[in-house]
């Protein structure tokens, strides 16, 4: 579905992404891990149109989408969430969902005056869709709360709900579990699994919680110093000596036994 070919993202002399190549297969939940500064978020931003890469290609179902802006990718069904949720705090949770679909009739002043029946019909349909999403995510009880008043974990669920309002094909999740309590993390993980299995969503997620990665992701891709250094199952990755070296600075083979001087 997504193929990244020899991608580079340079900031002056700093190479945040330094020749990364990878493939995200349709129907998978791919984990993207690596130490801080490995280039994970920069890679995400290049794929999702937030940054224009210095060189390299990004293909979506064979189409070159390198450098396309986020709103163009949105129209193709490629969405991303952010580590810090970007909600409209003064609007209700339901209203945050209802405003997601593009091209709504009521977006222009002329239509607001002359197409009121059409706008009302659209709003009813959007409200029904939003309520369906809230029920799917088991957060119907916060539908009428201001989005600025809900917890961090609930905001992450709201971000996931936004992707459901447009039936996304490819979703990039940036540390969806960061700062979330274990109960809500389980709810988020269950929603991701169900969207993948029941609705065919393809996910790629940056995450530092390896237990969360192990429960959800296959395959797992490891980045270090701007490059892809390993790909495999979570179990394979967690026992890979080179990955341990990248994360901890020392491999298990070099670890001294207890009591050694």
Automatic annotation (TrEMBL):
The domain of life is Bacteria
Could you tell me which residue ranges the ABC transporter domain spans?
2-250
Molecular function GO terms recorded: ATP binding; ATP hydrolysis activity
- SMART domains (UniProt xref): AAA (SM00382)
Claim: Acyltransferase is one of the keywords in the record: no
The record's section on CDD domains has: ABC_Mj1267_LivG_branched
> Which Pfam families does the record match to this protein?
ABC_tran, BCA_ABC_TP_C
Q: Which UniProt keywords apply?
A: ATP-binding, Nucleotide-binding, Transport
Which GO terms of the cellular component aspect does the record hold? plasma membrane
InterPro entries, sorted:
AAA+_ATPase, ABC_AA/LPS_Transport, ABC_transporter-like_ATP-bd, ABC_transporter-like_CS, BCA_ABC_TP_C, P-loop_NTPase
- Annotated protein name in UniProt: ABC transporter
Per the UniProt record, the source organism is Celeribacter baekdonensis B30
